[in-house]
UniProtKB/TrEMBL annotation:
Matching InterPro entries: Band_7 (IPR001107), Band_7/SPFH_dom_sf (IPR036013)
Coiled coil regions in record: none
Entry protein name: Band 7 domain-containing protein
Source organism (scientific name): Deinococcus arcticus
Domain of life assignment: Bacteria
SUPFAM superfamilies: Band 7/SPFH domain
Keywords: Membrane, Transmembrane, Transmembrane helix
Annotated spans, Disordered: 1-20
Taxonomic placement: Bacteria, Thermotogati, Deinococcota, Deinococci, Deinococcales
Record-annotated Band domain positions: 71-235
Gene3D superfamilies assigned: Band 7 domain
Pfam families: Band_7 (PF01145)
Residue stretches spanning the membrane: 29-51, 57-76
Amino acid sequence: MNELQHVPTPAPQGGVSPRSGIASVERPAFGLPGVPMFLLLLVGAGAAVVLLGRFPVPALVLGAALLFALAGFFIVQPNQAMNLTLFGRYVGTERRNGLYWTNPLTVRKSVSLRIRNFNSERLKVNDAGGSPIEIAAVIVWRVVDTARATFDVEDYAEFVAIQAETALRHLASQYPYDAYEDDRMSLRAHADEVAEALGGELAARLRHAGVEVLEARLSHLAYSPEIAGAMLQRQQAGAVIAARAQIVQGAVGMVEMALRQLSEQDIVTLDEERKAQMVSNLLVVLTSERGTQPVVNAGSLY
């Protein structure tokens, strides 16, 4: 006889597996409007008072039932929901605001649906190039599935904090702090793309807790203090090289323009040797960091 084997559900990429591979699903709870029910209980209380003199036993039973029914009232505040369980079984969620009545035997737990901010601590991690950096992020989130947030994780707020730190560490290891190739993304130069990648990874990790990520963005990014000075010198060297390259490019263009205009306007005719000397002199003048001292030639050109 073949035996059935239990195959555990694999954890989805970027997150943890729900318990037993089964995720809770939010559904509406049974709830009656509270004001009509309260008026009905008042009528019943009046009837119990009237019956008390002539039929004390039924009046006491009715009074006990009315007192028991009072435990079924609950209030749902704006941007909150109420999870209802009956004898350990989830029976639904009430999202409508106001006073409602339900089975008095149910246990009710309030869950906030308000938007929340989570500002992570500064983490010291290594980027894709192995350089130690400090990084932090601001996560804007809210609960969208109260059943998952309550029953699928122990503490959804703590779950968000831990998963945000894990996602931030993983993100920092995927990109360099600063890319020196134009076709490579970096944490510093591509803030929008990095924020989008962080938000996507957080959404994958937090969907098991019924949490929606509204925005995720880096709030702090810097080299670690032990290498900050060396990296600053590297950035300054890169900036100097880029500036000198632009200066040389502009100087070559100006020399080319000068030679072309001299030739077109037939001002002077220069052989190749004199052209080379003129190009050298112009490049020295245009690319020099200090002011050059002109030398006046009072004799012939040659």
